[in-house]
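Retro notes (design track)

What went well: tokenization of the new backbones is finally stable.
What didn't: we kept losing track of which sequence belonged to which structure.
Fix going forward: every design gets posted as structure first, then sequence, in one message. First example under the new rule, 116 residues:
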């Protein structure tokens, strides 16, 4: 189960996502608060950690009103977003977003089959 594929589905055509090497996640978002579009790159400081990337993506998309489910609970970690990164008008909403929920990603798995 890939984060970028799950983001594409959750965004319902309003988000393009692509995972990259070394803990990068690129997001292109259509949102009414950003009429020219919004581009976001998530970089995990210590390299690739899929769970950490899910937490951040869930928070970023959540404050913009896009619900991204996260199947990964925190284990001996604390979710942390550097102060000043999230615009002040979104901070209250950010506090209300749980870091994860109990969810089996295979439940929402989808595929596309081409008829020959």
């Amino acid at each position: 189960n890939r984060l970028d594929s799950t983001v594409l589905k959750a965004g319902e055509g309003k988000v393009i996502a692509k995972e990259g090497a070394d803990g990068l996640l690129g997001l292109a978002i259509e949102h009414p608060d950003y009429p020219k579009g919004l581009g976001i790159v998530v970089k995990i400081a210590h390299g690739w950690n899929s769970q950490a990337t899910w937490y951040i993506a869930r928070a970023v998309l959540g404050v913009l009103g896009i619900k991204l489910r996260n199947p990964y609970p925190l284990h001996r970690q604390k979710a942390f977003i550097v102060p000043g990164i999230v615009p002040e008008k979104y901070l209250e909403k950010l506090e209300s977003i749980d870091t994860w929920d109990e969810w089996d990603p295979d439940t929402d798995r989808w595929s596309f089959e081409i008829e020959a």
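Added context from the reviewer: The chain has one domain: 3-108.
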